[in-house]
Amino acid sequence: MPISMDDSLPDNIGEFRAAVFDVDGTLARDDSQISDRTIEALARLADTGVDIIIATGRTAPAAVSILHRVGVSGYAIACNGAITVHTDQDEPVSTMPIRDEVFDAAVEYCRSADVQVAIFTPTALHCDRQAEAWHFLHESNEGMIPHVADPTSVPQRDRLKFMIYVSREQDPIVGPELRRRFPAVMKTLPEYYEINEPGVDKWVGVEAALNDLGIAPEEALGMGDSENDLSWLPRIGMPIAMGNAFDSVKAECRYQIGGNEEDRAAAFIERWADHREMAGLAEPVDNIA
After folding, report:
1. Partner of 187 at 20 to 30 A CA spacing, among 68, 106, 136, 169?
2. Do 21 and 58 form a contact (C-beta atoms < 8 A)?
């Protein structure tokens, strides 16, 4: 089990030059909102020279908006790694859509199971009905209004992520069947499963961003909470699990802090910024958005 670290910092905190953050369940509270306190803490940390990287299942516009709120430029890995963008570039760094074979199989099964489906594209959201998933995505993607449409109407090149809402009543049957049919499916929230193109995950984007910044994975600290964070947390120097993280995530992390609902990520970031400022490690970089 990870070591609890609610009021302290790792002894080697001065070694880390980049910070990678998941959003839902990590930076964001349960209402899907990121507090002003968290944004201010990230801005302080960035001002000391730490590169901020967002790695989320949210859409690219929603991920970029977080960096804009912080007031920095940088990388945002969105849709679980299916799209990587940089705030200084007009076009995505990379996109990795889902092949027809995988997409069609997912649509067919979800229709047979009568579960809600949402498709993430580079700039938009599409839901098969206006129900629980529609409302959740509207709240968690900076007010973006999902289109209600047949999933198969979305062009193949734009099908970046396939999200499935599975109620708690449906989960005992649908969850195991999704894992059997789609071995790479990830459970990202208690009622949501997600499918990307096989081989696509957050690590694909995180690794590329770190390489471009000239930062080794061992020099990165990161925080996450769910199955879509398992691809990258074990590969960085300091993986930290949220208190609300899945047990599988905690098992891969060295440290654990409190839950997202109490803004514990913000508290940790504030302590890290304090340490860098007091230790004279503040070396601001040209990262203003």
Report:
1. 68
2. no
